Amino acid sequence: MDRNYIVETVNKVLSEEFEKDIALFTPDAHIRDDLNLDSLDIVDMIIALEAAFKFKLKDRSKILEIATMSDVYDFIEKTYQAEISAR
User: Fold this and answer.
1) Residues spanned by the domain of 30
2) Half-sphere exposure (CA, 13 Å, Cβ side) for 52?
3) Which of 19, 36, 44, 85 has its CA 20 to 30 A from that of 13?
4) What is the tens place of the pLDDT at every residue in 67-87?
5) Total domain count, the chain
6) Model confidence over 6-31: pLDDT tens digits?
């Protein structure tokens, strides 16, 4: 899974989930300040991304470190790599 696929998929899923313009989802967009997503939205975000990528995001403690969309992309990429390595 390459980075472009991750970025496109994350942006599309979150744009649809939160009914926001996909153009808002830039790497430097801040989850809370720019996208106005609160802690309950973060839970919804994780559930939507798990469904989209068809794997469980196991290291949930790292979710608290997510501040920007770039962090989301990195988190998905690392989670996917860990999933592949575990197989």
Assistant:
1) 3-86
2) 20
3) 85
4) 999 999 998 998 888 877 776
5) 1
6) 999 999 999 999 999 999 999 999 99
